[in-house]
TrEMBL record:
One Pfam family hit: Anticodon_2
Protein name: Glutamate--tRNA ligase
Organism in which the protein naturally occurs: Sandaracinobacter neustonicus
Glutamyl/glutaminyl-tRNA synthetase class Ib catalytic domain: residues covered: 2-304
A GO BP annotation: glutamyl-tRNA aminoacylation
One Gene Ontology term of the molecular function aspect: glutamate-tRNA ligase activity
Protein family membership: Belongs to the class-I aminoacyl-tRNA synthetase family. Glutamate--tRNA ligase type 1 subfamily.
Amino acid sequence: MIVTRFAPSPTGRLHVGNVRTALLNWLLARKAGGKFLLRLDDTDVARSTEEYAQSIRDDLVWLGMSADAEEKQSARLARYEEVLGQLAAAGHVYRAYETPDELDLKRKVLLGRGLPPVYDRAALALTEADHARFEAEGRKPHWRFRLDPALPHEWTDLIRGPSKIDPASLSDPVIRRADGSWLYMLPSVIDDVDMGVTDVVRGEDHVTNTGIQLQMFAAMGAAFPHFGHAALLTGADGALSKRLGSIGVSEFRDRGIEPIAVKALLARLGTSLSVEPVTSDAPLLDAFDIGHLGRATARFDEAELERLNASILHQTPYAAVADRVSLSETGWNAVRGNIHSIAEANQWAAVIDGPLPAPALEAEDKTFVNEAATMLAALPFDDGVWGALTEALKATTGRKGKALFMPLRLALTGQPHGPDMAAMLPLIGRDEALKRLGA
Ligand code: GLU
């Protein structure tokens, strides 16, 4: 059974990059009939808040990607402690005492000699007597994980193919601070093991972490999951933009973007498949294959999302929006081709229902629409009434094209553009239409 997880830190709102990561993991799990977990990486107690955690859950609900289960790292600290003890006994982790200044100095010396600034593992030489002395002085250790070329450091990435890191080129990562707080690295591995995570899809900024984490899985005696690293998103201009870090679900929602539009775009960005205006998850799930993602950065273009949103709405069946629009099915079918958002559909509903302010018409157009009122009153008010009315007016007034249609549209809808009047007029209804034309 495939188990994936989305592991945000509840230290802020989700941005579009996070949403994409969540979506890829959700698609992977749903397609395989597996499980999709929400794991809140909240070991940073100072910056994590329940409000952000709730906003993340709400965003996932809005996107239609609720998790099957939720886990919180802050509830698992005893477990991390236990594993640390086991890893310490097996020599995979060790205590160190260097201060940030001392470490900085070591790095500078190495760089000065043209060497990579890799931690020299001086702490490995400490004896039990040294530890006892430090403890007596009130100095607390931080913990490092000992990277080991003999442990696995290669993997076949679901997206990038054969991948590896060189453990000798990296400093042994600090996994726990002197104040007892945890860094992300080891808890994430412990969670993935305990939660049976089979597939981890995340941004390519985590590639080096993966190499390190493979070693941690092995140190725990656990098999490691499949890893896939998606290339990062850029803005429409192809540059890594700050703006992307601030656009998320609340902006989408404010702009009338539908959840399915967000999914339809983000599921295909950076893949070999084209973005299509789908109206449900099914076609996205059917076509999804993590291997379709390429290694090049993918452009997230807000204008493209808006266009996609509109074309999705143009095809959305009434049943999918019935609870959100104040329109009948006929009304929805009449207006959906002209809207960019559900809010616009409801503006058309208000136009249909009226009342409308009297339109500003030139005197001769006023006479013309009054004539239209008289004519309309004499016609059978059926689905063909708009055609019959305009044909008759054309014959009697000699008007055609814009001169014929525009005053009628303005009088009947108050707008110079909009849905097909042949569909709108029956929706407005006979009495209301006569009133608007006679006004
Ligand atoms: N909390 C980490 C992040 O948001 C999770 C990374 C991961 O998926 O392992 O970057």
